């Protein structure tokens, strides 16, 4: 809105408004792909939280579905706080538990999801984590950049729901088609709906090169369509789910502290502070403390969009062995560079021997 007013008066926008423009708005991911007909003809700007709240208020008033769903695009980056690192007593079982989701979880538990988890991989760490990982397209020399890349956006529960499956249902998964879903939209996985172009390749190489989107839509994305237990209230279509997921990953980017630590290591506390502190993030590591994954938590807006960042629940996320193993076993976290993955060592040796 500030940019529009500045353009109308032929003035240069205030400096506070000239924030980093989301790369997707310059590339293939144009918001006109979203069916509701809201076109982003200009730039999508990463705004401060105060401006994001104002944008949400205006969006509700205008009943603009796209503007509400894509609040992800106007979230400010999480700011590392100067508060002390969270004590282990506030989440005593950190990184030690195993949790499970439940199939068709919204209907099975009679409870709609109330939060989102965004999971991103540290690609070199993933590529070095298993012998066959190097065979993945995301681990190719041209793709394995030192950066956080998209794993997935997951509908989740802030508190577990009792179920007959193991110790409870921590997230819904593998949801069926809700009654509201438009017949004109594909429900089964449609690769053509995934954003394409250079920005998408950089943000989500596992999706664009290895087909991870098929798994993510079937397991998690289908449940993004369910924002009430009856399946009658409109949630996200497959296309909207992909657009919001990619936009959020792009808007958040990779913290400078991780980029600076590439090829070496940093303290667990510093890694957590890069995302706002221990309560704001879960960090997954190998047994040798190599960073694999970062999980951040966000509120679910009333209409099913992605809202502001929030504390990740202790039970379900921060106590998860899968999500937060770094906090359980590591005082320092290793941030591998692409050269440290070992994926291209055989190629390098053949080149050297041929000289």
Structure description:
Strand 6 (281-285) and strand 7 (291-300) form a beta hairpin. The protein is globular. Strands 2, 3, 6, 7 and 8 form a 5-stranded antiparallel beta sheet that branches. With 355 residues, it is an alpha+beta fold. Mean pLDDT is 79; it is low at 9-64, 72-76, 78-88 and 347-355. It is 29% helix and 14% strand. The longest helix is centred in the last third of the chain and has 15 residues, at 238-252. The protein is built from 14 helices and 9 strands.
What's the story with the biggest beta sheet? 5 strands, antiparallel
Provide mean pLDDT, rounded: 79
Span from first to last CA?
Answer: 60 Å
Low-pLDDT segments: 9-64, 72-76, 78-88, 347-355
Report the structural category: alpha+beta
The helix-strand sequence is HHHEHEHEEHHHHHEHEEEHHEH
User: Rg, please?
Assistant: 20 Å
Number of strands: 9
Question: What proportion of the residues is helical, as a percent range?
Answer: 25-40%
Q: What is the helix tally?
A: 14
β-strand amount: 5-15%
Overall morphology: globular
List keywords for this structure.
about 350 residues, alpha+beta, five-stranded antiparallel beta sheet, two-stranded parallel ribbon, 14 helices, 9 strands, about 30% helix
What's this, in brief?
The protein is of the alpha+beta class. The chain contains 14 helices and 9 strands.
